[in-house]
Amino acid sequence: MFNDIGPLELVTLVILAVLVFGPDKLPKVIQDVARTIRKIRDFSESAKQDIRQELGPEFKDFEFEDLNPKTFIRKQLENDDLGLKEIRNGFDLKKEMAEVTDAVHGRDSDTGSAPSAAASSSGGRVDMTKRPADDRPPFDADAT
């Protein structure tokens, strides 16, 4: 509840409470605040129980924290009923991106042969699928 309050802030709040309420009224104020917090918690728990009863037995494992989207997604990924871990582990993003980049730039990532070697081995014909990396693909203004 008070995870983000540091020690200096806590000391400041105590000093401020002593100054505002006085040392003789401060214990009574603390008891009143604690009683109010306890009542709010009891009211919250009874409301949760009422909602669970109204939802029925099929929602007996329902947690209100699951209404937070981050918690819901984290819980679903931990269950892994769909096999998402296998898909995630079988997918190498760097390799896939390198293949896409090579395809866009017209490079052949497997052989790395130059067009001149392809032309000399094919009897003078130029293989258009293997272009040098700095050569841009042909542009057809009518096709765009």
The count of DSSP E runs of length 2 or more, i.e. the number of strands, is 0
Net shape: elongated
Rounded to the nearest angstrom, the radius of gyration is 34 Å
| Discrete helix count | 6
Please give the share of residues in helix.
Answer: 55-70%
- Kindly report how far apart the N and C termini lie: 61 Å
Task: Describe the largest sheet.
Answer: none
Written as H for each helix and E for each strand, in order along the chain, the element string is HHHHHH
Number of domains: 2
pLDDT under 50 segments (min length 5)? Answer: 111-122
User: Structural class, judged by helices and strands?
Assistant: mainly alpha
Mean pLDDT: 76
Strand content: under 5%
Biased composition (Low complexity): 112-124
Membrane topology: Single-pass membrane protein
Protein name: Sec-independent protein translocase protein TatB
Subcellular location: Cell membrane; Membrane
What would you say this structure looks like, in words?
- It is found in: Cell membrane; Membrane.
- It is a single chain.
- With 144 residues, the protein is an all-alpha fold.
- The chain folds into 2 domains: 7-89, no CATH class; 92-133, no CATH class.
- Helices cover 58% and strands 0% of the residues.
- It contains 6 helices and no strands.
- The protein has helices at residues 7-21, 26-55, 69-79, 84-90, 93-105, 115-121.
- Residues 111-122 have low confidence and may be disordered.
